[in-house]
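From the methods appendix. Each design record in this collection lists the tokenized structure first, followed by the designed amino acid sequence. Records were kept in a plain field format so they could be parsed without special tools. The example shown here is representative of the layout used throughout.

RECORD:
FOLD TOKENS (381 positions):
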């Protein structure tokens, strides 16, 4: 990546919600990298993870799952190439660590680093002015606790750093540092017999990135960070001691106000509600402020379906489908994936098949993740 135009294009693609109405009405946020699914296991199931069984990377999707982990320590290492059809130096790297303190509590920590690659700068005469490496990263920690044998909750505190500033004349972009909080819950039901097989219900929610607005541009308006609601459920078909099939469904909604439609001349609001509100008010307002009314609010909810087949806890096959309304970005894709466990290590891989006319940053990209389960072993599920 050699110029600023590619940076702008990358930022547009990772700003997930884009409206396709007659009047453009995008929902944009600061630090959208926080919503990128970091690992290949979830990547094989349409980026779903709020209600699936616990793994090393649960911090991103639902940290309340950590108390149901099968081992004392979990470590996840992930690398996600980004925009591989355009460049080879944009990527998301992440590291997850968690520890099950006892049967009822656990803690976790993670770090995500999103690099926009090396940017070579030149003046009007083509003389080199050096290079820049715009990047964003987050560091967070969680604590989860079982409130009953079947339900747990977790809180997360996150530090967010966004450095997209370029050392050029008249650049108003500034470095941002802020904090956010997550609140999550997870339900894992009791295994019951359903005639020819046993089964178990799962459910979960996660309200992530609740935090103050930030100023990305000097003297400009403040931007919301990507506060997001995940809500999902699943059922586990335990066929026998070796074969398990899980079906999952998940819904996502940005808890960020929809910009109103304004008069181009006066700036007065024609439809919708004023989006210049606090982040707390904006979370509630996001459910009823779309200029297009209820139908547009429904369009702002994305959904996904996925399935996972697990054999003897050593081999997994996965598939999923993700849907976003054509009026809100038109991301639609299938995913496939597989997982292989070698004693304490697990290797996951996934591949995305785009079904939309809109290009996907992960199109034609094979993703890999590596995780480790270490220490004392608890009940697997």
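DESIGN:
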């Amino acid at each position: 990546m050699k110029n600023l135009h590619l940076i702008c294009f990358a930022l547009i693609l990772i700003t997930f919600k884009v409206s396709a109405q007659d009047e453009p009405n995008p929902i944009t946020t600061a630090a959208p990298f926080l919503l990128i699914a970091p690992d290949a296991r979830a990547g094989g199931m349409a980026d779903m993870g709020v209600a699936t069984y616990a793994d090393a990377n649960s911090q991103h999707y639902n940290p309340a799952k950590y108390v149901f982990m099968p081992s004392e320590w979990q470590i996840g290492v992930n690398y996600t190439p980004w925009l591989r059809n355009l460049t080879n130096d944009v990527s998301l790297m992440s590291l997850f660590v968690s520890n099950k303190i006892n049967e009822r509590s656990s803690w976790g920590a993670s770090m995500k680093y999103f690099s926009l690659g090396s940017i070579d700068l030149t003046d009007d005469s083509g003389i080199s002015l050096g290079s820049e490496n715009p990047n964003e990263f987050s560091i967070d920690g969680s604590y989860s606790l079982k409130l009953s044998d079947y339900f747990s909750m977790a809180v997360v505190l996150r530090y967010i750093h966004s450095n997209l500033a370029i050392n050029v004349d008249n650049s108003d972009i500034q470095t941002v540092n802020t904090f956010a909080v997550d609140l999550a819950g997870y339900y894992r039901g009791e295994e019951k017999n359903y005639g020819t097989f046993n089964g178990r219900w799962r459910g979960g929610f996660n309200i992530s990135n609740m935090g103050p607005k930030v100023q990305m541009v000097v003297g400009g308006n403040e931007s919301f960070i990507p506060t997001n609601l995940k809500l999902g459920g699943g059922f586990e078909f335990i066929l026998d001691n070796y074969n398990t099939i899980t079906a999952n469904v998940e819904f996502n909604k940005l808890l960020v106000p929809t910009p109103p439609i304004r008069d181009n001349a006066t700036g007065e609001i024609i439809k919708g509600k004023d989006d210049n509100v606090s982040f707390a008010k904006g979370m509630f307002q996001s459910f009823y402020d779309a200029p297009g009314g209820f139908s547009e609010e429904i369009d702002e909810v994305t959904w996904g379906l996925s399935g996972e087949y697990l054999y003897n806890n050593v081999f997994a096959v996965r598939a999923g489908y993700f849907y976003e309304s054509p009026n809100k970005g038109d991301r639609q894709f299938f995913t496939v994936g597989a997982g292989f466990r070698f004693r304490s290590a697990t290797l996951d891989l996934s591949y995305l098949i785009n079904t939309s006319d809109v290009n996907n940053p992960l199109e034609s990209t094979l993703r890999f993740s590596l995780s480790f389960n270490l220490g004392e072993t608890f009940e697997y599920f």
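APPENDIX NOTE: The longest helix spans residues 4-13.
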